[in-house]
Design brief:
globular; binds iron/sulfur cluster; mainly alpha; 0% strand
């Protein structure tokens, strides 16, 4: 099983909620958001990410407009 790249993940994370305990733990981040019908912040463009609306609906609406 590969090692977790925690420090590199933290360095690369684009989520602006920097005090989140799941920061860099991408598997936990994804599991947590997905169980709430959401997606991780890193999948949203900067201007949308900062609204903290991580819903699947927002994701679809965002990328439908930008294509
Ligand atoms: S996307 Fe959510 S779980 Fe992931 S680091 Fe940001 S606030 Fe935490």
């Amino acid at each position: 099983m590969p090692e977790c790249n925690l420090e590199q993940n933290k360095a690369d994370c684009t989520c602006t909620y920097t005090s989140c305990g799941k920061r860099g733990l991408c598997c936990e981040c994804l599991r947590s958001h997905w169980s709430a019908g959401e997606l991780p912040g890193c999948l949203f463009p900067k201007d949308v990410e900062k609204t903290y609306d991580r819903s699947v609906e927002k994701f679809i609406a965002t990328y439908q407009k930008r294509r």
